[in-house]
Amino acid sequence: MKKTKVSLLVKWFAVILCLAIIAACSNNSNSPNATNAPSNAGNAGEETPDAAASEAPSLPEVELTFIYPVSANPGPDQKLVNDEINKYLKEKINATVDLKPLTFDEYEPKLNAMLAAGENFDLAWSSKGWLGNYQPYIDRGAYLEITEDMIGQYAAEARANIPDKFWPDMLAVDGKVYGFPIYQVAAKTKSLVIQKRFVDKYNLDVSAIQSYKELEPFLKTLKDNEPGIIPLGLAQNSWGLYTDRTKVGEGMVLSYAKDDPTLKYIGSLQTLDEKKSYFDTMRSWYQAGYINDDAPIIQNINDLKSKGNVAVALEFTSKPGGEVGEMAVNGGNEVVYAPISDSYFTGIAGAMHVINKGSKNPERTLMLINLLNTDPYLYNLICNGIEGKHYNKTDDKYIEPIKDSGYAPNGDWVFGNQFNAYLKPGQAADTWERTIALNDSAIVPATSGFGVNEENIKAEIANVTAVNNEYQVALESGSVDPAKELSKYREKLIASGQEKIEKEAAAQWDKFKQEKGLVK
Protein backbone atom coordinates (compact mmCIF):
# COMPACT_ATOMS: atom_id res chain seq x y z
CA MET A 1 0.00 0.00 0.00
CA LYS A 2 2.78 2.40 0.92
CA LYS A 3 4.56 1.60 -2.33
CA THR A 4 1.38 2.32 -4.31
CA LYS A 5 0.92 5.72 -2.64
CA VAL A 6 4.49 6.72 -3.40
CA SER A 7 4.06 5.65 -7.02
CA LEU A 8 0.89 7.70 -7.35
CA LEU A 9 2.57 10.75 -5.82
CA VAL A 10 5.46 10.47 -8.31
CA LYS A 11 3.05 10.23 -11.23
CA TRP A 12 1.01 13.23 -10.03
CA PHE A 13 4.17 15.26 -9.54
CA ALA A 14 5.26 14.47 -13.11
CA VAL A 15 1.88 15.56 -14.49
CA ILE A 16 1.92 18.81 -12.52
CA LEU A 17 5.49 19.57 -13.64
CA CYS A 18 4.57 19.07 -17.32
CA LEU A 19 1.54 21.33 -16.97
CA ALA A 20 3.67 23.99 -15.31
CA ILE A 21 6.21 23.93 -18.14
CA ILE A 22 3.50 24.20 -20.79
CA ALA A 23 1.79 27.01 -18.93
CA ALA A 24 5.06 28.89 -18.59
CA CYS A 25 5.62 28.68 -22.34
CA SER A 26 2.10 29.79 -23.20
CA ASN A 27 0.91 32.02 -20.39
CA ASN A 28 2.19 35.27 -21.81
CA SER A 29 0.60 35.19 -25.26
CA ASN A 30 -1.33 38.28 -26.25
CA SER A 31 -1.80 36.94 -29.76
CA PRO A 32 -5.22 37.60 -31.24
CA ASN A 33 -7.23 34.72 -32.56
CA ALA A 34 -8.54 34.62 -36.10
CA THR A 35 -11.56 36.76 -35.33
CA ASN A 36 -10.09 39.52 -33.20
CA ALA A 37 -6.63 39.67 -34.74
CA PRO A 38 -6.94 43.06 -36.44
CA SER A 39 -8.23 44.94 -33.42
CA ASN A 40 -5.50 43.75 -31.07
CA ALA A 41 -2.49 43.56 -33.35
CA GLY A 42 -1.26 47.09 -32.76
CA ASN A 43 -1.48 46.90 -28.96
CA ALA A 44 0.28 43.61 -28.58
CA GLY A 45 3.79 45.00 -28.84
CA GLU A 46 3.53 46.67 -25.45
CA GLU A 47 4.65 43.46 -23.77
CA THR A 48 8.29 43.78 -22.72
CA PRO A 49 11.09 41.37 -21.82
CA ASP A 50 10.82 42.43 -18.18
CA ALA A 51 7.23 41.23 -18.08
CA ALA A 52 8.29 37.80 -19.29
CA ALA A 53 11.35 37.36 -17.11
CA SER A 54 9.50 35.71 -14.24
CA GLU A 55 7.98 33.09 -16.54
CA ALA A 56 11.18 31.38 -17.71
CA PRO A 57 10.54 27.63 -17.62
CA SER A 58 12.88 25.18 -15.95
CA LEU A 59 14.33 23.67 -19.09
CA PRO A 60 17.93 22.87 -20.03
CA GLU A 61 19.45 25.58 -22.22
CA VAL A 62 19.67 24.75 -25.94
CA GLU A 63 20.98 26.49 -29.05
CA LEU A 64 18.80 26.58 -32.15
CA THR A 65 19.53 27.61 -35.74
CA PHE A 66 16.96 29.30 -38.00
CA ILE A 67 17.54 29.73 -41.74
CA TYR A 68 15.16 31.90 -43.77
CA PRO A 69 14.99 33.91 -47.02
CA VAL A 70 15.12 37.70 -47.28
CA SER A 71 15.05 40.05 -50.24
CA ALA A 72 18.32 41.73 -49.23
CA ASN A 73 20.90 41.83 -46.43
CA PRO A 74 19.02 42.92 -43.27
CA GLY A 75 21.85 45.29 -42.30
CA PRO A 76 24.89 45.59 -40.01
CA ASP A 77 22.78 45.39 -36.85
CA GLN A 78 21.67 41.82 -37.54
CA LYS A 79 23.82 40.49 -34.67
CA LEU A 80 22.66 43.25 -32.30
CA VAL A 81 19.02 42.28 -32.89
CA ASN A 82 19.87 38.58 -32.69
CA ASP A 83 21.47 39.15 -29.27
CA GLU A 84 18.38 41.02 -28.07
CA ILE A 85 16.18 38.19 -29.29
CA ASN A 86 18.30 35.67 -27.41
CA LYS A 87 18.00 37.59 -24.14
CA TYR A 88 14.24 37.28 -24.48
CA LEU A 89 14.23 33.65 -25.58
CA LYS A 90 16.39 32.61 -22.64
CA GLU A 91 13.79 34.09 -20.32
CA LYS A 92 10.89 32.50 -22.16
CA ILE A 93 12.09 29.01 -23.18
CA ASN A 94 15.75 28.95 -22.05
CA ALA A 95 17.00 28.81 -25.64
CA THR A 96 19.06 30.92 -28.00
CA VAL A 97 18.71 31.04 -31.76
CA ASP A 98 21.30 31.71 -34.43
CA LEU A 99 19.50 33.65 -37.16
CA LYS A 100 20.82 32.93 -40.66
CA PRO A 101 19.17 35.14 -43.29
CA LEU A 102 19.83 34.18 -46.91
CA THR A 103 18.86 36.04 -50.06
CA PHE A 104 16.20 34.42 -52.23
CA ASP A 105 18.71 33.14 -54.76
CA GLU A 106 20.98 31.77 -52.00
CA TYR A 107 18.26 30.05 -50.01
CA GLU A 108 17.49 26.89 -51.99
CA PRO A 109 21.12 25.98 -52.76
CA LYS A 110 22.11 26.54 -49.12
CA LEU A 111 19.17 24.51 -47.81
CA ASN A 112 20.08 21.64 -50.12
CA ALA A 113 23.76 21.82 -49.20
CA MET A 114 22.99 21.76 -45.46
CA LEU A 115 20.65 18.80 -45.85
CA ALA A 116 23.13 16.88 -48.03
CA ALA A 117 25.99 17.47 -45.59
CA GLY A 118 23.89 16.73 -42.53
CA GLU A 119 24.75 20.22 -41.29
CA ASN A 120 22.89 21.13 -38.15
CA PHE A 121 19.93 23.49 -38.29
CA ASP A 122 16.59 23.34 -36.54
CA LEU A 123 14.13 25.71 -38.13
CA ALA A 124 13.66 26.67 -41.79
CA TRP A 125 11.20 28.49 -44.00
CA SER A 126 9.16 26.61 -46.58
CA SER A 127 6.25 27.00 -48.95
CA LYS A 128 4.06 25.07 -51.32
CA GLY A 129 5.43 25.47 -54.81
CA TRP A 130 8.31 27.83 -54.08
CA LEU A 131 11.43 27.95 -51.90
CA GLY A 132 11.90 24.86 -49.77
CA ASN A 133 9.00 23.33 -51.71
CA TYR A 134 6.91 21.47 -49.13
CA GLN A 135 6.01 18.11 -50.71
CA PRO A 136 9.28 17.37 -52.57
CA TYR A 137 11.30 17.99 -49.42
CA ILE A 138 8.91 15.81 -47.42
CA ASP A 139 9.41 13.08 -50.02
CA ARG A 140 13.16 13.40 -49.43
CA GLY A 141 12.67 12.96 -45.70
CA ALA A 142 13.96 16.45 -44.91
CA TYR A 143 11.18 17.76 -42.68
CA LEU A 144 9.96 16.40 -39.35
CA GLU A 145 6.33 15.38 -38.97
CA ILE A 146 4.59 17.69 -36.51
CA THR A 147 1.93 15.60 -34.83
CA GLU A 148 -1.26 16.79 -33.18
CA ASP A 149 0.19 15.77 -29.81
CA MET A 150 3.30 17.89 -30.40
CA ILE A 151 1.21 20.88 -31.43
CA GLY A 152 -1.10 20.42 -28.46
CA GLN A 153 1.84 20.34 -26.07
CA TYR A 154 4.17 22.96 -27.53
CA ALA A 155 2.18 25.20 -29.92
CA ALA A 156 -1.43 25.06 -28.84
CA GLU A 157 -1.94 28.85 -28.87
CA ALA A 158 -0.45 29.29 -32.32
CA ARG A 159 -2.73 26.52 -33.62
CA ALA A 160 -5.76 28.16 -31.99
CA ASN A 161 -5.17 31.26 -34.14
CA ILE A 162 -5.53 29.30 -37.40
CA PRO A 163 -9.15 28.90 -38.57
CA ASP A 164 -9.98 25.20 -38.78
CA LYS A 165 -11.28 25.55 -42.34
CA PHE A 166 -7.75 26.55 -43.44
CA TRP A 167 -5.86 23.76 -41.67
CA PRO A 168 -6.35 20.99 -44.30
CA ASP A 169 -4.03 22.99 -46.55
CA MET A 170 -1.16 21.89 -44.32
CA LEU A 171 -1.69 18.20 -45.04
CA ALA A 172 0.97 16.50 -47.14
CA VAL A 173 0.10 13.79 -49.64
CA ASP A 174 0.34 11.17 -46.87
CA GLY A 175 -2.22 13.06 -44.78
CA LYS A 176 0.36 14.18 -42.21
CA VAL A 177 1.56 17.67 -41.26
CA TYR A 178 5.23 18.65 -41.60
CA GLY A 179 5.09 22.41 -41.16
CA PHE A 180 3.42 25.18 -39.21
CA PRO A 181 1.73 27.95 -41.22
CA ILE A 182 2.68 31.60 -41.00
CA TYR A 183 -0.80 33.09 -40.81
CA GLN A 184 -1.16 36.06 -43.12
CA VAL A 185 -2.86 36.76 -46.41
CA ALA A 186 -4.08 33.41 -47.73
CA ALA A 187 -5.47 34.66 -51.01
CA LYS A 188 -3.58 35.19 -54.23
CA THR A 189 -4.20 38.15 -56.52
CA LYS A 190 -1.68 38.69 -59.29
CA SER A 191 -1.11 42.41 -59.75
CA LEU A 192 1.04 44.83 -61.65
CA VAL A 193 3.07 47.08 -59.36
CA ILE A 194 3.23 50.56 -60.91
CA GLN A 195 5.15 53.55 -59.60
CA LYS A 196 2.60 56.17 -58.59
CA ARG A 197 4.60 59.10 -59.99
CA PHE A 198 4.08 57.74 -63.51
CA VAL A 199 0.44 56.90 -62.86
CA ASP A 200 -0.15 60.52 -61.85
CA LYS A 201 2.02 62.09 -64.55
CA TYR A 202 0.34 60.26 -67.42
CA ASN A 203 -3.17 60.00 -65.90
CA LEU A 204 -3.18 56.22 -66.08
CA ASP A 205 -6.59 54.72 -65.26
CA VAL A 206 -5.44 51.77 -63.17
CA SER A 207 -8.97 50.37 -62.93
CA ALA A 208 -9.02 49.91 -66.72
CA ILE A 209 -6.13 47.44 -66.60
CA GLN A 210 -7.54 43.94 -66.41
CA SER A 211 -4.68 42.02 -68.01
CA TYR A 212 -1.28 42.53 -69.58
CA LYS A 213 -2.99 43.57 -72.84
CA GLU A 214 -4.15 46.96 -71.54
CA LEU A 215 -0.62 47.87 -70.46
CA GLU A 216 0.98 48.38 -73.86
CA PRO A 217 0.07 52.06 -74.50
CA PHE A 218 1.43 53.02 -71.08
CA LEU A 219 4.69 51.16 -71.71
CA LYS A 220 5.11 52.95 -75.02
CA THR A 221 4.54 56.33 -73.35
CA LEU A 222 7.19 55.55 -70.76
CA LYS A 223 9.68 54.39 -73.38
CA ASP A 224 9.15 57.54 -75.48
CA ASN A 225 9.21 60.05 -72.62
CA GLU A 226 11.20 58.66 -69.69
CA PRO A 227 14.89 58.10 -70.53
CA GLY A 228 16.67 55.93 -67.98
CA ILE A 229 13.40 54.28 -66.88
CA ILE A 230 12.67 50.59 -67.50
CA PRO A 231 8.99 50.45 -68.50
CA LEU A 232 8.55 46.79 -67.46
CA GLY A 233 11.03 45.01 -65.20
CA LEU A 234 11.30 41.22 -65.41
CA ALA A 235 13.78 38.71 -63.97
CA GLN A 236 14.29 34.99 -63.42
CA ASN A 237 12.16 35.16 -60.27
CA SER A 238 9.57 37.59 -61.61
CA TRP A 239 7.75 36.76 -64.82
CA GLY A 240 4.34 35.46 -65.85
CA LEU A 241 2.02 38.30 -66.87
CA TYR A 242 -0.32 35.85 -68.60
CA THR A 243 -3.69 35.31 -66.95
CA ASP A 244 -6.93 33.69 -68.11
CA ARG A 245 -10.00 34.61 -66.08
CA THR A 246 -12.03 31.82 -67.70
CA LYS A 247 -9.98 29.29 -65.78
CA VAL A 248 -9.43 28.46 -62.12
CA GLY A 249 -6.09 27.44 -60.69
CA GLU A 250 -3.38 29.44 -62.39
CA GLY A 251 -0.22 29.10 -60.34
CA MET A 252 -1.79 26.31 -58.27
CA VAL A 253 -1.46 22.56 -58.43
CA LEU A 254 -3.68 22.32 -61.54
CA SER A 255 -6.22 24.26 -63.59
CA TYR A 256 -9.77 23.69 -64.86
CA ALA A 257 -12.30 25.82 -66.74
CA LYS A 258 -14.75 27.84 -64.62
CA ASP A 259 -17.74 26.72 -66.69
CA ASP A 260 -16.78 23.04 -66.78
CA PRO A 261 -18.96 20.98 -64.38
CA THR A 262 -16.61 18.02 -64.77
CA LEU A 263 -13.62 20.04 -63.55
CA LYS A 264 -11.45 18.47 -66.24
CA TYR A 265 -7.72 18.90 -65.67
CA ILE A 266 -6.06 21.36 -68.05
CA GLY A 267 -2.47 20.37 -68.61
CA SER A 268 0.61 22.47 -69.26
CA LEU A 269 0.81 21.46 -72.92
CA GLN A 270 -2.68 22.80 -73.63
CA THR A 271 -1.90 26.00 -71.75
CA LEU A 272 1.34 26.40 -73.68
CA ASP A 273 -0.58 26.25 -76.97
CA GLU A 274 -3.04 28.86 -75.70
CA LYS A 275 -0.22 31.26 -74.79
CA LYS A 276 1.21 31.68 -78.29
CA SER A 277 -0.19 35.20 -78.82
CA TYR A 278 1.01 36.16 -75.35
CA PHE A 279 4.56 35.06 -76.16
CA ASP A 280 4.36 37.05 -79.40
CA THR A 281 3.39 40.13 -77.39
CA MET A 282 6.26 39.67 -74.97
CA ARG A 283 8.62 39.36 -77.92
CA SER A 284 7.38 42.59 -79.48
CA TRP A 285 7.69 44.41 -76.14
CA TYR A 286 11.24 43.17 -75.68
CA GLN A 287 12.23 44.28 -79.16
CA ALA A 288 10.59 47.68 -78.58
CA GLY A 289 12.73 48.18 -75.46
CA TYR A 290 9.87 48.04 -72.96
CA ILE A 291 11.51 45.13 -71.07
CA ASN A 292 15.01 45.21 -69.59
CA ASP A 293 17.61 43.51 -71.80
CA ASP A 294 18.93 41.32 -68.96
CA ALA A 295 15.49 39.96 -67.98
CA PRO A 296 16.37 36.28 -68.58
CA ILE A 297 19.71 36.65 -66.79
CA ILE A 298 19.08 38.75 -63.68
CA GLN A 299 18.21 36.44 -60.79
CA ASN A 300 16.45 38.72 -58.32
CA ILE A 301 13.98 41.36 -59.48
CA ASN A 302 14.55 43.36 -56.30
CA ASP A 303 18.15 44.00 -57.37
CA LEU A 304 16.69 45.81 -60.35
CA LYS A 305 13.79 47.53 -58.56
CA SER A 306 15.98 48.85 -55.73
CA LYS A 307 17.45 51.43 -58.11
CA GLY A 308 14.03 53.06 -58.38
CA ASN A 309 13.94 53.05 -62.17
CA VAL A 310 11.47 50.20 -62.81
CA ALA A 311 8.10 51.72 -63.67
CA VAL A 312 6.09 48.47 -63.77
CA ALA A 313 6.76 45.07 -62.23
CA LEU A 314 4.75 42.01 -61.23
CA GLU A 315 3.55 40.91 -57.79
CA PHE A 316 2.15 37.40 -57.50
CA THR A 317 0.40 37.85 -54.15
CA SER A 318 -0.67 41.46 -53.75
CA LYS A 319 -2.33 42.12 -50.42
CA PRO A 320 -3.86 44.97 -48.42
CA GLY A 321 -1.09 47.29 -47.26
CA GLY A 322 1.51 45.55 -49.42
CA GLU A 323 2.28 48.77 -51.26
CA VAL A 324 4.40 49.90 -48.31
CA GLY A 325 6.73 46.93 -48.63
CA GLU A 326 6.87 47.46 -52.39
CA MET A 327 7.81 51.09 -51.83
CA ALA A 328 10.79 49.95 -49.77
CA VAL A 329 12.14 47.81 -52.64
CA ASN A 330 11.34 50.40 -55.32
CA GLY A 331 13.93 52.93 -54.27
CA GLY A 332 11.48 54.66 -51.93
CA ASN A 333 8.99 55.42 -54.71
CA GLU A 334 5.28 55.03 -53.95
CA VAL A 335 3.49 52.33 -55.90
CA VAL A 336 -0.07 51.27 -56.69
CA TYR A 337 -1.47 47.83 -57.50
CA ALA A 338 -3.35 46.97 -60.69
CA PRO A 339 -4.91 43.50 -60.24
CA ILE A 340 -4.82 41.36 -63.39
CA SER A 341 -6.37 38.17 -62.00
CA ASP A 342 -9.22 37.03 -59.78
CA SER A 343 -8.51 36.53 -56.09
CA TYR A 344 -8.13 32.89 -55.14
CA PHE A 345 -7.87 31.31 -51.73
CA THR A 346 -4.48 29.67 -51.98
CA GLY A 347 -4.41 28.22 -48.51
CA ILE A 348 -2.09 28.89 -45.61
CA ALA A 349 0.77 26.74 -46.84
CA GLY A 350 2.23 29.48 -49.02
CA ALA A 351 4.53 30.36 -46.12
CA MET A 352 5.40 28.13 -43.20
CA HIS A 353 8.02 27.08 -40.71
CA VAL A 354 9.42 23.56 -40.88
CA ILE A 355 11.61 21.60 -38.49
CA ASN A 356 14.65 19.78 -39.81
CA LYS A 357 14.18 16.05 -39.35
CA GLY A 358 17.73 15.99 -37.99
CA SER A 359 17.06 18.63 -35.34
CA LYS A 360 18.35 17.66 -31.91
CA ASN A 361 15.75 19.87 -30.24
CA PRO A 362 12.45 19.59 -32.14
CA GLU A 363 10.29 20.30 -29.09
CA ARG A 364 12.12 23.52 -28.27
CA THR A 365 12.02 24.48 -31.94
CA LEU A 366 8.25 24.09 -31.89
CA MET A 367 8.16 26.29 -28.78
CA LEU A 368 10.03 28.92 -30.78
CA ILE A 369 7.51 28.58 -33.63
CA ASN A 370 4.75 29.07 -31.09
CA LEU A 371 6.35 32.27 -29.80
CA LEU A 372 6.98 33.66 -33.29
CA ASN A 373 3.29 33.22 -34.00
CA THR A 374 1.83 34.39 -30.69
CA ASP A 375 4.29 36.69 -28.93
CA PRO A 376 3.94 40.26 -30.30
CA TYR A 377 7.11 41.53 -28.64
CA LEU A 378 9.31 38.79 -30.14
CA TYR A 379 7.63 39.00 -33.54
CA ASN A 380 8.05 42.76 -33.86
CA LEU A 381 11.62 42.54 -32.56
CA ILE A 382 12.68 40.14 -35.31
CA CYS A 383 10.67 42.05 -37.95
CA ASN A 384 11.56 45.64 -37.03
CA GLY A 385 14.51 45.58 -34.65
CA ILE A 386 14.92 47.51 -31.42
CA GLU A 387 12.54 50.33 -30.55
CA GLY A 388 14.28 53.71 -30.43
CA LYS A 389 17.18 52.45 -32.55
CA HIS A 390 15.59 50.92 -35.61
CA TYR A 391 12.07 52.32 -35.34
CA ASN A 392 9.93 54.64 -33.25
CA LYS A 393 6.37 54.02 -32.15
CA THR A 394 3.97 56.75 -33.21
CA ASP A 395 0.95 55.26 -31.42
CA ASP A 396 -0.30 51.88 -30.26
CA LYS A 397 -0.70 50.61 -33.85
CA TYR A 398 1.91 52.41 -35.93
CA ILE A 399 5.68 52.61 -36.08
CA GLU A 400 8.03 54.81 -38.09
CA PRO A 401 11.13 52.93 -39.31
CA ILE A 402 14.35 54.91 -38.84
CA LYS A 403 16.06 55.39 -42.19
CA ASP A 404 19.46 53.68 -42.50
CA SER A 405 19.14 52.41 -38.94
CA GLY A 406 21.15 49.26 -39.57
CA TYR A 407 18.33 46.70 -39.53
CA ALA A 408 15.62 46.30 -42.14
CA PRO A 409 14.87 42.68 -43.17
CA ASN A 410 11.58 43.77 -44.78
CA GLY A 411 10.17 40.27 -44.38
CA ASP A 412 7.31 40.25 -41.87
CA TRP A 413 5.74 37.39 -43.87
CA VAL A 414 8.79 35.21 -43.17
CA PHE A 415 8.79 35.36 -39.39
CA GLY A 416 5.33 34.63 -37.98
CA ASN A 417 1.67 35.56 -37.61
CA GLN A 418 1.50 38.85 -39.49
CA PHE A 419 -1.58 40.02 -37.62
CA ASN A 420 0.73 40.75 -34.70
CA ALA A 421 2.66 43.27 -36.77
CA TYR A 422 2.79 47.01 -36.19
CA LEU A 423 1.49 49.04 -39.09
CA LYS A 424 3.90 51.21 -41.04
CA PRO A 425 3.39 54.65 -42.56
CA GLY A 426 1.10 54.42 -45.55
CA GLN A 427 -0.77 51.33 -44.37
CA ALA A 428 -4.45 51.88 -43.65
CA ALA A 429 -5.60 51.43 -40.08
CA ASP A 430 -7.90 48.62 -41.23
CA THR A 431 -5.18 46.70 -43.11
CA TRP A 432 -5.59 43.55 -41.03
CA GLU A 433 -9.39 43.69 -41.17
CA ARG A 434 -9.22 43.91 -44.96
CA THR A 435 -6.74 41.05 -45.09
CA ILE A 436 -9.07 38.82 -43.07
CA ALA A 437 -11.94 39.85 -45.37
CA LEU A 438 -9.86 39.00 -48.45
CA ASN A 439 -9.02 35.58 -47.04
CA ASP A 440 -12.70 34.92 -46.37
CA SER A 441 -14.04 36.23 -49.69
CA ALA A 442 -11.49 34.78 -52.11
CA ILE A 443 -12.60 32.04 -54.51
CA VAL A 444 -11.87 28.64 -52.99
CA PRO A 445 -10.79 26.36 -55.85
CA ALA A 446 -12.03 22.79 -56.01
CA THR A 447 -8.38 21.74 -55.84
CA SER A 448 -8.07 22.97 -52.25
CA GLY A 449 -6.49 20.13 -50.29
CA PHE A 450 -5.31 18.30 -53.40
CA GLY A 451 -1.66 17.54 -54.06
CA VAL A 452 0.04 15.38 -56.66
CA ASN A 453 1.98 12.39 -55.36
CA GLU A 454 5.17 12.57 -57.42
CA GLU A 455 6.54 9.14 -56.50
CA ASN A 456 5.91 7.60 -59.94
CA ILE A 457 6.99 10.62 -61.98
CA LYS A 458 10.10 11.87 -60.19
CA ALA A 459 12.43 11.34 -63.15
CA GLU A 460 10.03 12.99 -65.57
CA ILE A 461 9.57 15.99 -63.29
CA ALA A 462 13.33 16.44 -63.03
CA ASN A 463 13.70 16.26 -66.82
CA VAL A 464 10.81 18.64 -67.47
CA THR A 465 12.15 21.08 -64.90
CA ALA A 466 15.43 21.21 -66.81
CA VAL A 467 13.56 21.96 -70.05
CA ASN A 468 11.49 24.65 -68.37
CA ASN A 469 14.66 26.25 -67.06
CA GLU A 470 16.00 26.35 -70.59
CA TYR A 471 12.98 27.91 -72.29
CA GLN A 472 10.45 29.35 -69.87
CA VAL A 473 12.06 32.60 -68.75
CA ALA A 474 13.40 33.28 -72.22
CA LEU A 475 9.94 33.05 -73.75
CA GLU A 476 8.18 34.84 -70.89
CA SER A 477 10.61 37.76 -71.10
CA GLY A 478 10.42 38.02 -74.89
CA SER A 479 14.17 37.59 -75.27
CA VAL A 480 13.78 34.79 -77.85
CA ASP A 481 11.58 34.46 -80.92
CA PRO A 482 8.58 32.21 -80.13
CA ALA A 483 8.17 31.48 -83.84
CA LYS A 484 11.47 29.60 -83.64
CA GLU A 485 11.59 28.40 -80.02
CA LEU A 486 8.04 27.57 -78.94
CA SER A 487 7.76 24.39 -81.02
CA LYS A 488 11.18 23.24 -79.81
CA TYR A 489 10.08 23.86 -76.22
CA ARG A 490 6.93 21.80 -76.69
CA GLU A 491 8.78 18.93 -78.37
CA LYS A 492 11.37 18.78 -75.58
CA LEU A 493 8.66 18.80 -72.92
CA ILE A 494 7.02 15.79 -74.55
CA ALA A 495 10.34 14.02 -74.98
CA SER A 496 11.11 14.62 -71.29
CA GLY A 497 7.89 13.06 -70.04
CA GLN A 498 5.37 15.90 -69.79
CA GLU A 499 2.56 13.72 -71.14
CA LYS A 500 3.25 11.05 -68.50
CA ILE A 501 3.20 13.73 -65.78
CA GLU A 502 -0.13 15.06 -67.00
CA LYS A 503 -1.64 11.58 -67.28
CA GLU A 504 -0.60 10.78 -63.71
CA ALA A 505 -1.83 14.12 -62.35
CA ALA A 506 -5.16 13.74 -64.18
CA ALA A 507 -5.68 10.23 -62.76
CA GLN A 508 -4.99 11.40 -59.21
CA TRP A 509 -7.25 14.41 -59.72
CA ASP A 510 -10.10 12.21 -61.01
CA LYS A 511 -9.78 9.99 -57.95
CA PHE A 512 -9.74 13.02 -55.64
CA LYS A 513 -12.87 14.44 -57.30
CA GLN A 514 -14.75 11.19 -56.82
CA GLU A 515 -13.67 10.75 -53.21
CA LYS A 516 -14.67 14.33 -52.33
CA GLY A 517 -17.92 14.19 -54.28
CA LEU A 518 -16.92 17.16 -56.43
CA VAL A 519 -18.55 15.74 -59.56
CA LYS A 520 -21.54 13.49 -60.13
Q: What key attributes describe this structure?
A:
15 strands; 21 helices; 4-stranded mixed β-sheet; single chain; 520 residues; disordered N terminus; globular; 5-stranded mixed β-sheet; alpha+beta
Describe this structure in words.
This protein is α+β, with helices and mostly antiparallel strands and 520 residues long. Helices cover 42% and strands 12% of the residues. The chain is built from 21 helices and 15 strands. The chain has helices spanning 2-26, 37-40, 49-52, 78-93, 104-117, 134-139, 148-154, 156-160, 196-201, 216-225, 268-274, 276-288, 301-305, 322-329, 362-374, 376-384, 412-415, 431-441, 458-476, 482-495, 498-516, and strands at residues 62-70, 95-103, 123-126, 179-181, 187-188, 191-195, 230-232, 247-248, 256-257, 310-315, 335-339, 344-345, 352-355, 391-393, 399-401. It has a 5-stranded mixed sheet. Strands 7-10-6-11 form a 4-stranded mixed sheet. Strands 5-12 form a two-stranded antiparallel sheet. The longest helix has 25 residues, at 2-26. The radius of gyration is 24 Å and the shape is globular. Mean pLDDT is 88; it is low at 1-55.
